[in-house]
């Protein structure tokens, strides 16, 4: 997929099996060194040293760190997957008149970065986008349809895949204990109102709440989970 945003800025996303697996943006966003610092996987000195080596040579930052014994391959792959979530979050900020083109069966990023794909967890990407909605009318309109009915988590819901922050997870924990309506959730003061509403909205649009007998399975159910255990507690900027 190619996006052309304001100022003719061009950005590319490669979807593999329906999952975002590579992103190239003309904007400078979420450099791997920055992501490694966010995750506590590298120090500022290590990042600076790696940049002094990799920028002139064109060597991949992550590959350099592995060769130097500073990180293992698993940690670099996890960081690259989180970097992809960050890049996708940046694309969510584009205006609605951004033009796009989809190329079926074509990988426009085949020669970009390393040969390995580091896909992002789709539910984490969705949650990242939901956090940006704030007081959007679509959230209030969707939640209004729920009425006062108690909200029930579906047994098939895989909440860990959302990579929720602690304040978001507290709202879900209430529903794990027993069904509760929106008013009850807000009165329990488990998190601020905006956080609770955005979490419930995310659960609604991904079909993780039991809202009727004819529902399809939750989004992503049955697909392999992209395991990012060391990233689950990371807050997005």
Average residue pLDDT? 86
Run of helices and strands: EEEHHHHEHHHHH
Strand order of the largest sheet: 3-2-1-4
**What percentage of residues falls in helices of 4 or more residues?**
40-55%
Shape estimate:
globular
Structural class: alpha+beta
Oligomer: single chain
Give the uncertain stretches in residue-range form: 229-234
Radius of gyration using CA atoms only: 20 Å
Measured between the Cα atoms of the first and last residue, the distance is 25 Å
Strand content: 5-15%
What does this structure look like?
Helix content is 41%, strand content 9%. With 237 residues, the chain is an alpha+beta fold. Strands 3-2-1-4 form a four-stranded antiparallel sheet, with helices on one face. A hairpin with a 3-residue loop joins strand 1 (2-5) and strand 2. The longest helix is centred in the middle third of the chain and has 19 residues, at 73-91. The protein starts with a strand and ends in a 32-residue tail after the last helix.
Salient structural properties:
single chain; 237 residues; alpha+beta; four-stranded antiparallel sheet; 41% helix
């Amino acid at each position: 997929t190619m996006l052309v945003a304001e100022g003719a800025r061009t950005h590319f996303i490669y979807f593999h099996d329906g999952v975002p697996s590579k992103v190239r943006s003309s904007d400078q966003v979420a450099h791997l060194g920055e992501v490694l610092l966010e995750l506590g996987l590298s120090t500022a000195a290590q990042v600076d040293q790696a940049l002094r080596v990799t920028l002139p040579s064109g060597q991949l930052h992550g590959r350099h760190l592995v060769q130097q014994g500073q990180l293992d391959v698993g940690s670099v792959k996890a960081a690259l997957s989180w970097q992809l979530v960050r890049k996708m979050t940046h694309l969510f900020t584009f205006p609605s008149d951004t033009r796009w083109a989809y190329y079926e069966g074509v990988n426009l990023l085949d020669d970009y970065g390393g040969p390995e794909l580091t896909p992002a967890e789709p539910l984490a990407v969705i949650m990242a986008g939901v956090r940006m909605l704030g007081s959007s009318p679509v959230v209030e309109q969707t939640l209004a349809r729920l009425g006062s009915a108690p909200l029930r988590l579906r047994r098939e819901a895989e909440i860990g895949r959302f990579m929720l922050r602690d304040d978001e997870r507290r709202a879900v924990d209430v529903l794990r204990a027993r069904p509760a309506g929106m008013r009850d959730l807000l009165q329990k003061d488990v998190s601020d109102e905006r956080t609770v509403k955005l979490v419930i909205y995310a659960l609604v649009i991904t079909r993780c709440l039991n809202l009727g007998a004819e529902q399809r399975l939750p989004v992503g159910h049955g697909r392999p989970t992209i395991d990012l255990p060391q990233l689950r507690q990371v807050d997005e900027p």
